[in-house]
Amino acid sequence: KILRILEDVSLFSDLTEGELLLLEPLGSVIEGRAGDVLIQEGKVVPNLFILLAGEASIKKKRPDGRQVEVATVGKNDLLGELTFLKMPPASASVEATTRFKALVLSQKDLHAVLRRHPVLGSKIYRKFARVLCRRLAKMTAQFAASVPPPKYL
Fold first, then answer.
1. Are 18 and 123 in contact (CB under 8 A)?
2. Hey, what's the torsion of the CAs at 36, 65, 137, 8, to 10 degrees?
3. How do residues 60-110 score in pLDDT, each as one tens digit?
4. Which end of the chain is less enclosed by CB atoms within 10 A, N or C?
């Protein structure tokens, strides 16, 4: 069952069947409902999540303590990749906004597999870089759109 899910996830589309078989034992599937928190800002994130169905909101605390939504995510989106790459506490929270299903991969176990299989590691890290670049470009465009035009005298 996990192998079929891995085959259908775009993050793993470049992997061979042998590479997918290395990842299969690391995965499990969870289901939840709106309001469930997958990642909590400031906490250690032990898992990566890939949404298989449903949507979630990425929220960040402002200096005044209020949480604001900074992005939404949906099917095939990767969650927890920043902590996977750097291992700090989470920089934002992720809360489901609908019923969801997610593939869960242990970060610790995935790091171990990628250390033992550097070609697989290279493929996964390249995909993570693409995800992060796409998100950065989207957030940059959103920021630019939100900046008011300069006022001329």
1. no
2. -10
3. 999 999 999 998 999 999 999 888 887 789 999 999 999 999 999 999 999
4. C
**How far is the C-alpha of 153 from the C-alpha of 77, rounded, in Å?**
45
Residue 75 phi, psi (nearest 5): -50, 135
The pTM (predicted TM-score) of the whole model is 0.86
Sheet containing strand 100-106, strands side by side: 27-32, 100-106, 47-53, 78-79
**Assigned token pair, 18:** 């042998």
Q: Is the dihedral of CA 28, 29, 33, 38 positive or negative?
A: positive
What is the chain's percent helix, strand, coil content, to nearest 5? 40, 25, 30
Task: List helix spans (H) across the chain.
Answer: 2-8, 17-23, 81-86, 107-116, 118-146
Residues with Cβ within 8 Å of 109's Cβ and at least 6 positions away in sequence, in order, are 26
